[in-house]
Amino acid sequence: MRSGSNAPRVGSYNRNVVLDAIRQSAGVSRVELAAHTGLTQQTVSNIVRRLIRDGLVTESGQIPTGLGKPRIGLQVNGRAYHAVGVHIDPHSITYVIVDLVGNVVARRARRPPAGTRPATVIRQVARAVGDMVAGSGVAAGSVLGIGVASPGPIDAERGEVVSPPNLPGWQRVPLRDALAEQTGRPVYLDNDATAAASGERWVGRTERSGSFLFVYLGTGIGSGLVLADQVYRGDTGNAAELGHVPVEARGRPCHCGGRGCVEAYAGLPSILASLSAAAGRGASRGAGPGASPGAGPHAGPHAGPGAGTAAGRGAGPGYRDWADLDAAIAAGDRAPRDAVTVAAGYLGAGTVSAINLVDVNRVIIGGRVRRECAEIFRAGVERALSRRTIARAVRPLSVEVSLAGQDVGAIGAASLVLHGNYAPHPSALLADIGTLP
Amino acid sequence: MRSGSNAPRVGSYNRNVVLDAIRQSAGVSRVELAAHTGLTQQTVSNIVRRLIRDGLVTESGQIPTGLGKPRIGLQVNGRAYHAVGVHIDPHSITYVIVDLVGNVVARRARRPPAGTRPATVIRQVARAVGDMVAGSGVAAGSVLGIGVASPGPIDAERGEVVSPPNLPGWQRVPLRDALAEQTGRPVYLDNDATAAASGERWVGRTERSGSFLFVYLGTGIGSGLVLADQVYRGDTGNAAELGHVPVEARGRPCHCGGRGCVEAYAGLPSILASLSAAAGRGASRGAGPGASPGAGPHAGPHAGPGAGTAAGRGAGPGYRDWADLDAAIAAGDRAPRDAVTVAAGYLGAGTVSAINLVDVNRVIIGGRVRRECAEIFRAGVERALSRRTIARAVRPLSVEVSLAGQDVGAIGAASLVLHGNYAPHPSALLADIGTLP
To answer: Is B242 in CB contact (< 8 Å) with chain A?
Structure first.
């Protein structure tokens, strides 16, 4: 049964609508805000007065209007509040401090401790957050909380990391509460790709308004969904698991327990393993077709996060990560370009499923992937969508590369805090239904 | 940029919240409504007074409460308003009149005119609607409009049927406006599976509150998505196209232009063609493995809606539709049970994609499919979801058979009208953003 709405909720919702509009369009005037939001000028004026009083908004100078009174531009006071964002990736933990406007005011990255035991990682994260805030010059009291982006699946309600294929040994880890206890700050947990989608919306401002699917290419493959300016999470907080959409019904086994998943073909370990296997075949050329049994690309996803490195050090050409692939492709190497192109075809097939199901007009490619590979994936996904989605007959689809760069996961984690506190959610209008979190 | 909200919108939203709550729980009291909706008792009393004055709600008698004043039960006056629902299927057009409570007060079904030329079909539909309303005893003035469920894709904004694979010859047909002109009534158009999802929510009341994916098995395969009690339509009105989710990257060509789609394996024509091919192989047994080239299951989806019938009249066992399959399975025939079980495996793979992407905890199987086949599909989908979805580790998934029966498409079409006018949409709270339609 639906909940009703009431005046206090409408008031706080409208306040966040106005604040978000000022954040997206720095220098906007009260008159323009009224036109953009559909609110009366009186309502806008009252809200702006309170935002200025609370230190969240400042007046940024006069806008000449020809005749009549000049308008006054408004901007968000970024320094009023900050959030910490932490992105836990199997190979690297990235930390940022983001201000209310969306500027990154501090950043660091650390390799996770050997063995990645949850308790060790959580202790390291708590210490690193404290050190970073202390060294950043940001007023400790202005930090609203810590957002954490973790590989999925997660249990959003309990704040637990459930058993991510890309974090072996993490079983039902109460990351949110443990980190909150060790830091004394509120902690918000989300899966990495959903956090990245939130980060892309935050950084992209008006260029990322509306709806889009954000495809996150890191160690694994995930995606996040923004629907009508709201991050969509699903019933369990695990929506948009693009990496585990099957594209071959009886295909390769995947480390998630399924078969034929996108990630088993298009994930980084799979690309590295296929290059390594091809190099091995090249080395033993002439030994006959039975020469390298078991060296097929599906060795990748089973072998854990170190597979690519190990394979690279073996018979292969030594690629270890997205940066290596990008450098080789930029230098004109054919093999990595071909391997990524094949992977892009599988990602395209998975994205056709996604778009046929969620029907959004925009797909963004981003994450740890670098420029050359991102463009190959972008083109492959665009080709698949333009040939095969049902809605292509109704409206064109746009496929773009991320505006947020490689730190989108960490920035997104921080935006969970800022967005949760300060962005407009229509669900906040409904009595008894809270915003996240 | 998001729109703000204001008092009149909140008022009409809350009115619809209360009306929907009374519809879902006939006999509910004002005190219970306040508890269910989070509104104050004063707000609920004011809304109920207006609903009674407008003839939408009646008091249904006293509820004893022991001590104190007895509470008065409320119920929706179904007769206050009606809607016509039309479901256009390649093989049959179904018409219903549904009252405000959700009761079907009239029903008829007609074979579409030969050739299914759009202008001919629209004329026939306009005449049939007029005849049915005239013969139903329903006050013509109580009919709010006509909802039409059509095979997709549709252009929701323009009210056009774009070029459905299952309606050959329909190219950008302005169905909404043409029918509105011929009947003089408002017309609401949606794709059949989305309308069916809306119908399931309407019929299922509290049993279908929250979020679910409705899988529609008719001539083709579609699905509709209800998220937090709202029908989700996507950017173009073509969300949840489950039939055209690829499950084999280099699989059978599908009539949509793609390859390896769920519908190319699990659609009715494909099942009928595979049975027909198997029967043909049985008849020519001993002729060697090359005896029936081209008689594989993928003959089905290409051959148009008549394929099953034609194939059935040939070498096959003569099955034409879901009813034939159900009768044979109920009689213990092995071949149709096996064919539907294989199809259910492919539907299961597509549903894994859907649930990994939209993350809802409930899947409903329904449409034209009958009891035996529905149960085979239900079990196959449940098996696939419980083995392969990412969120299975967080929360159990439930797979159920539809409560709405075979007319769910037509009832859903009618509910588009009633839901559009009388159900609570949070989007209606936002200034300048209308409800559909």
So the answer is: yes
* B62 interfacial to chain A (CB closer than 8 Å): no
CB-CB under 8 Å, A211 with B235: yes
Domains identified in chain A and CATH numbers: 7-76 (1.10.10.10), 80-207+407-429 (3.30.420.40), 215-283+295-401 (3.30.420.40)
pTM: 0.86
pLDDT tens-digit profile, chain B (437 residues): 567 777 777 888 888 889 888 988 888 999 999 998 889 999 999 999 999 999 999 998 777 777 777 889 999 999 999 999 999 988 889 999 999 888 999 999 998 776 678 999 999 999 999 999 999 999 989 999 999 999 888 998 899 999 887 788 888 999 999 999 999 999 999 999 999 999 999 888 888 888 999 999 998 999 999 988 888 989 888 899 999 998 887 889 998 888 899 999 999 999 999 999 988 877 655 444 333 333 333 333 333 333 333 333 444 578 999 999 999 999 999 999 999 999 999 999 999 999 999 999 999 999 999 999 999 999 999 999 998 888 888 888 999 999 999 999 999 999 988 876 555 655 555 543 222 22
**Helix (H), strand (E) at residue B227:** strand B221-227
Closest to B128 (Cα-Cα) out of B150, B104, B151, B112? B112
The alpha carbon of B28 is separated from its chain's Cα centroid by a whole number of angstroms, namely: 28
- Distance between B429 CA and the closest CA of chain A, angstroms: 8
**CB proximity under 8 Å: A 118-177 to B:** 152-155, 162-163
Within 38-57 of A, beta carbons closer than 8 Å to B belong to 38-40, 43
Q: What is the DSSP pairing of strand B187-191 with strand B143-150?
A: parallel
CA torsion sign for A181, A182, A184, A186 is negative
Give the number of other Cβ atoms within 10 Å of residue B296's Cβ: 12
**Close Cβ partners of B342 (under 8 Å, ≥ 6 residues apart):** B265, B274
Q: Which of B349, B354, B431 sits opposite A249 (nearest CB)?
A: B349
| Interface predicted TM-score (ipTM) | 0.84
| Whether A209 contacts chain B with CB within 8 A | yes
Nearest to B432 among A1, A38, A154 (CB): A38
List Cβ neighbours of A164 (8 Å cut-off, separation of 6 or more).
A150, A151, A152, A153, A170
Q: Nearest by CB to A359, which of B3, B25, B236?
A: B236
Cβ-based burial of A413 (10 A; exposed 0-12, middle 13-18, buried ≥19):
buried
